[in-house]
């Protein structure tokens, strides 16, 4: 299994109105051909600009469309083939992360990465041949280290993060929504966006106060030439991170300050994970330090193709933040992932759908001719009732059976009404229905035995119909626990409404509905399942296929240009030594130029070392100040406890602090201590003898 590095691109936005009002100057510049970014330190005229090289650079006049087609297109295309992919935007607050991921509808060239990914995925699905897709979506946010479902009934409810040996890290009770088109995806994300936490700061009036992750899950079933199905699964994470903040610039206070603290802590944890992965010597990767890093665990060093978009502000008053972002992105380039196609996933819902569809088709083809089946699948099923056979002469046995049937239906309807009114559990309802059905079948069985003993004959067609209905119910029960009662009630109700006379033909159980109605129920379920999956609707659209090929070709050309540019940067020094010169003067001139470049790089490296040492010293002093502050707080709390312990009752378990410390347990998921319950042990003395 090969590895590939995380792809990193940088994007610079224009100066905004606030920066123009402050008369800010631009300190960022880019070489688009060589994918290089330069940043100049304000006021340091003698210092050369710091230089960084990435997988792509996009300046103020570049569009989101160009960036997506060149860099993001191959990653999203890989998701439709069964790979996992992640695209996330990083940068300080107000640097254009949400603009890059969400975008704007006008102009069309600035439509964001997320809506473009929707269009790309469904375009590939529609062009696929002999392949079906099940597409589901989820949308969550991490607000103040709490995970929320933006598409759930309660967007403020806190969800739990769990880990499974096969599924990996997942969010319990996160809602999944099946989608069939770009429009449905857009409606879902608009709903989630309205529920997302945003707030006003001095640097951004609509600042994201949480990290959000929109995930598209694909299950892919392709059929080969030998009519064998092959299952794959892909997942695309579209991540919009909240921006790092400085309180002095954002003016955050109160709740906004608390949000900013949590945001900075999670981004710091993300930086620590990147540093540990790049270091190579670290045996421990601190994924568990935040919810964000745990959710992105597979995207950083795991089974995922990852693209990081570093968003920058060109203003000189954001120099330190922009430089920090560039260093952050430069480290991320060195992360090695191990992506692979997810073949034959064990928990694929599409597998269950395909198996059920095959069973339903087999059931239909066993009762219908090929022509009738194709007519039904085309939606041309006639609603008119089939020819009604002549009704046999009514007998006392038939009347008793009809009475039992009516009693059964009445009691069943009553149970259903009670369930709807009192919201009883599914398990209890199923037990009641099963018991009622057992009673009903036993009564009918006794009647049949009595009828057989009197020499009565049972129509053959009823037996065949019974077999068909039992097969249908077994199939339905395997996929839906409530389907048992639903099919049973629906088939009998429709039969009695359309033709009350035929209701008297029911034999040994309620599963003896006439064959054509069985076919209709099977067909309805079959059509419902086939509507869940999509794929191949535009397989013969030559124009759409040509456009897709052109986009793939453009992405391949851009990749080749990038490889060539990077190779030029690395081979530049070697060419000077290997070239053949016409004269000594020409060789001296070329090598002098090379010497000047090397001296410039050496000077830049020394300045970088100086800056890093200065930053390290600042961080070190900050850590020391934090340690001293925590020590003071710890001493204060310890002194308070020593004064308060003598005041606690001796028969209370909280009077012994040492025992409490031993009984306390650290909860990794909630990042809190679980303390024992308060208990008071009362001692009762025996009554004295008289």
Q: What features would you describe in this structure?
A:
The protein is an alpha+beta fold and 690 residues long. The chain contains 19 helices and 22 strands. The strands form six sheets. Strands 2, 6, 7, 8, 9, 10, 13, 16, 17, 18 and 20 form an eleven-stranded mixed beta sheet that branches. Helix 10 runs antiparallel to helix 14. It is flat, with a radius of gyration of 35 Å.
Compute the separation of the termini in Å: 88 Å
Mean of residue pLDDT?
A: 75
Tell me the strand percentage band. 15-25%
What is the rounded Rg? Answer: 35 Å
Q: How helix-rich are the residues, as a percent range?
A: 40-55%
> Number of DSSP helices?
19
Please give a quick description of this structure.
This protein is an alpha+beta fold and 690 residues long.
Topology summary:
Layout: E1 4-5, E2 7-12, H1 17-21, E3 28-31, E4 36-39, E5 50-53, E6 56-58, H2 64-79, E7 84-90, H3 97-101, H4 113-127, E8 131-143, E9 146-149, E10 158-159, E11 161-164, E12 168-171, E13 177-178, H5 182-195, E14 198-199, E15 207-208, E16 211-223, E17 229-240, H6 247-250, H7 255-279, H8 291-295, E18 305-312, H9 319-332, E19 336-337, E20 342-343, H10 349-367, H11 370-377, H12 396-422, H13 426-453, H14 460-479, H15 483-498, H16 515-532, H17 542-578, H18 584-644, H19 657-663, E21 665-667, E22 672-674
Parallel strand pairs: 2-6, 2-18, 7-17, 7-18
Antiparallel strand pairs: 1-19, 3-4, 4-5, 8-9, 8-13, 8-16, 9-10, 11-12, 14-15, 16-17, 17-20, 21-22
Helix pairs in contact: 2-4, 2-17, 10-14, 10-16, 12-13, 14-15
Biased composition (Polar residues): 381-396
Main location: cytoplasm
Subcellular location: Cytoplasm, Cytoskeleton
